[in-house]
Amino acid sequence: MSKILKGAPVAAALNEQIAKDVETLAERGIHPKLAVVRVGERGDDIAYEKGVASRCEKVGVGVRKITLPVDTAQAELTNVLKELNADAAIHGVLLFRPLPKGIDESFVCNTLSPAKDVDGITDASLAGVFAGIDTGFPPCTPSACMEMLDHYGVALQGKKAVVIGRSLVVGKPVAMMLLGRHATVTICHTRTTDMYAVCREAEVLIVAAGRADVVDKSYLSPNQTVIDVGINVNKDGKLCGDVKFAEAEPIVAAITPVPGGVGTVTTSVLVKHVVEAAKKQSMQS
Ligand code: NAD
Questions:
Q1: Cα(59) to centroid of ligand 1, in Å?
Q2: Is 28-114's fold the same as 140-263's?
Q3: 38 pairs with which residues across the strands?
């Protein structure tokens, strides 16, 4: 039987600290505010937008929602981001991706000022993660994985960590963050051979493949902490992770559930980044 690493207590601890920081900033006349930019009407974007707005409201962070039609021209979208860059009342910007076809996503993302890039979508923010320097912010999901590990006291220094997935949103940045904490990191991907043997060696296993049930018991061993980042819908229409939870739970030392794991923490990390951005911007002005 493994320990179940739920996201709710981690999010609650983060929210408590965020609310205190918001109060302290308010005493100095600073009111952190997030702009949420959505192009089109994707259901998952709308659901996340609602979650973000409600979390912000609970901790006293302002939200400005900007919704653009799906056929918005690239120039119009970049102008919106430039206006937000120049707006001193906005401290962070969340831009939903993927953007509609025909828009150069990399170009648009890099229009955003790294100082307001609270979800790590600019090259400057990602360079900061890779260089271990404080430029912009890391993407929220890998930060949420690190918050989970820290909250539950999982040691990283000198430990063998394996990451499944090499996307710029999750896999690569979380690997760099683990490396920054002195873990010995291996990244697995679709062309890794003997992946189950590599994974069985891991003391910390982060799974971000985006495929339901990709990790079964053959990848697992006792004493492992497993962080399941995947959010998938199974054939019964239910949310599930990338790990076969029922097979993993009797084997490993600790595992995050899906739903109720990393995803629960991601929104709080986003709001934490907004508050940190407001603090940093207040020191520069
Ligand atoms: P992605 O599709 O961009 O990347 C997946 C990566 O996994 C790729 O590098 C691919 O090579 C690798 N991969 C896929 N199948 C594999 C396999 N069978 N074996 C080994 N490697 C494999 O996905 P992403 O954006 O990195 O997201 C990963 C997962 O995390 C998705 O399920 C996504 O929904 C979820 N996600 C969760 C949160 C959260 O808050 N919990 C946030 C963002 C993404």
A1: 30
A2: yes
A3: 67
Taking domain 28-114, whether its CATH number is 3.20.20.70 is answered by: no
- In short, whether 142's Cβ falls inside 6 Å of ligand 1 is no
Encode pLDDT of 64-97 as tens digits.
Answer: 999 999 999 999 999 999 999 999 999 999 999 9
pTM, rounded to two decimals: 0.96
Give the CATH number of domain 140-263: 3.40.50.720
216-254 pLDDT per residue, tens:
999 999 999 999 999 999 888 999 999 999 999 999 999
211 C-alpha to ligand 1 centroid (Å): 7
For ligand 1, atom 3: residue with the closest CA: 167
Amino acid letter for position 14? L
